[in-house]
Amino acid sequence: DGGITQSPKYLFRKEGQNVTLSCEQNLNHDAMYWYRQDPGQGLRLIYYSQIVNDFQKGDIAEGYSVSREKKESFPLTVTSAQKNPTAFYLCASKGELGQPQHFGDGTRLSIL
Amino acid sequence: QKEVEQNSGPLSVPEGAIASLNCTYSDRGSQSFFWYRQYSGKSPELIMFIYSNGDKEDGRFTAQLNKASQYVSLLIRDSQPSDSATYLCAVRNENEKLTFGTGTRLTIIP
Fold first, then answer.
1. Which of A110, B99, B100, B110 is the most exposed place for a label (fewest CB within 10 A)?
2. B66-100 burial, b if ≥16 CB within 10 A, otherwise e?
3. Which of B50, B98, B104, B105 is the mutation pick for testing A, counting most A CBs within 10 A?
4. How far apart are CA B51 and CA A75, in angstroms?
5. Is the pLDDT of residue B2 over 80?
6. Is the Cβ–Cβ distance between A6 and A88 less than 8 Å?
7. Any chain B CB within 8 A of the CB of A104?
8. Which residues in chain A (41-100) have CB-CB distances under 8 A to chain B?
9. How many Å apart are CA A23 and CA A8, to the nearest integer?
10. CA-based angle A98:B95:A79, to the nearest 5?
């Protein structure tokens, strides 16, 4: 089945710890995105990548890092510099220009 | 002014009635418009998208776009309890950046 797989579904971070959220897609999409959603809020863009080995900061990139070494994969690292990391993290991908974004099932990150 | 504005609701509609969800946007260069449905605790699911002025229908859903008024809406006919969710409006500009509203919570009353 084609789709976007995010793992883990739930993640807990200790103080001072970096954690990495996985996002894999087998849709052959060039563009991939990371969003953060807080309760009662819309989605805010963290980072995005239009092609392999290239990515750009979104609106709230501070405290996060990404890599795009393979077309299928776009992992997000939440660093210890992100002081309020508790949120629902959503990965999305998009095919050709003009096509809509589709989302994975999300990862819910909490602080221990 | 927020870039994409939606009434947060909750919007309560009787089962079988028409639910009307509205969204306004500030960027006149916006190219395309999307409606996503999000059930509690789940990820957003694409319902409709519209690029041109006018109406676009898909089953019980109709998206309406008025670029002059910077307004996009979603109508849900014959509302069902399973339509109860938060509906997110998203607007994409000429640089392909997608901006989301905060969503409208819809409750269908049996």
1. B110
2. eeeebebbbbbeebeeebbbbbbbbbbbeeebbbb
3. B98
4. 31
5. no
6. no
7. yes
8. 41-45, 90, 97-98, 100
9. 9
10. 105
DSSP letter at A99 equals: P
Chain B residues whose CB is inside 8 A of the A106 CB are 42-43
**Helical ranges in chain A per DSSP H:** none
Nearest to A32 by CA among A86, A88, A82, A76: A76
Give residue B50's identity as a one-letter amino acid code: I
pLDDT digits (tens, 9 = 90+) for A6-37: 999 999 988 889 999 999 999 999 999 999 99
Determine contact: B98 vs chain A, CB below 8 A: yes
pLDDT at B91: 95
Give pLDDT tens digits for B38-52. 999 999 999 999 999
